[in-house]
Amino acid sequence: MVDRPKKPSALATTPGLPPQAQLNISHDNSRVSAVLPTGESVEVLLFGATIISWKDAKGNEKLWLSEAAKLDGTKAVRGGVPLVFPVFGTAPDHAATAKLPQHGFARSSRWEFLGKSTSESSTLSATSAGDDSVKLDFGLSPSNLTEESKKAWPYKFGLIYSVTLGKEGLTTSLVVQNDGEQAWEFQTLMHTYFRVKDISTVSITGLESSPYLDKVLGPSSTGEPYTSPSAAVSLSSKVDRVYTPAGGPEAAVIIKEGGKKKFGIVRDNMNEVVVWNPWKDDAQGMGDFAPKDGYKEMICVEAGAVKGWQKLEQGETWEGGQVIMAAN
Ligand SMILES: O=P(O)(O)OC[C@H]1O[C@H](O)[C@H](O)[C@@H](O)[C@@H]1O
């Protein structure tokens, strides 16, 4: 837009138009960000459709992003919200996904930005009316994949990932479609790195009495899942667990700090919740993890469908996601 210093004051704002969400696409076309009229913002890297920042109206960052994270497309992003698809971890025993790298290809493929949509406040008051939320849509299909990924997973698929920024929270949802004739299976997960001030005062509720797999301890002696105690989960060493919360997806998982609610996560069609913190030694071993004591300021609580496989027949779609509410 051409700046006109002598612009008549009557044209300074468009009369009658409520405040809109601002959209910004970076010059090199590598990121999309959106800001609500009330100040909340979100930034998404097209590489992986990875959310790398989410701030509240006061500018407080809600996500943890490593200072050494690669944001140039050479490696999956360490921090923010990387999207895991079509395999969680690696699955050497699952022939169809056995050749894929850890957590699949979605987090290291370049997605397309499909556009934004907004929803307005229903309030009639002229001062508070305006965009209440902004939704950014991203798409991935085989045409976006490298030859290597296409060879390793030769199925026809379409993904639409929607990131919706609201005043109280952030919603991420994924639609997975089988565009081919052959049936295939997948796992998916939203690998959210939440920013906290001090991991020693963090507790997580909503996982009480739930079965879980422990990737640090390995299988239990009986081969059955472990059962979480009835108390909240707190951390004092490396944790890497896959919970199937007893309350189901709609029951909120709450991250508290110093006993105060910090985040609430409600899932849709995502039966599992992974809790991960690499702690001191593993953080030391990750080249893209900085600062090295950054593990004290993060907790991954990851909504996913990762136990067993979601199967899609020709033309079928699956949809799932999470709503994250942030307390002040
Ligand atoms: O290092 P990455 O491939 O990004 O994986 C980071 C972590 O992701 C999940 O939380 C898994 O449960 C962990 O086992 C894994 O270490």
From TrEMBL:
Keywords, comma-separated and alphabetical: Isomerase
Per its record, the protein catalyses: alpha-D-glucose 6-phosphate = beta-D-glucose 6-phosphate
Q: Where is this region: Disordered?
A: 1-24
Isomerase recorded as keyword: yes
Which family is it part of? Answer: Belongs to the glucose-6-phosphate 1-epimerase family.
What is the role of this chain? Catalyzes the interconversion between the alpha and beta anomers from at least three hexose 6-phosphate sugars (Glc6P, Gal6P, and Man6P).
Q: What is this protein called?
A: Glucose-6-phosphate 1-epimerase
Please report the organism this UniProt entry assigns to the protein: Mollisia scopiformis (Conifer needle endophyte fungus)
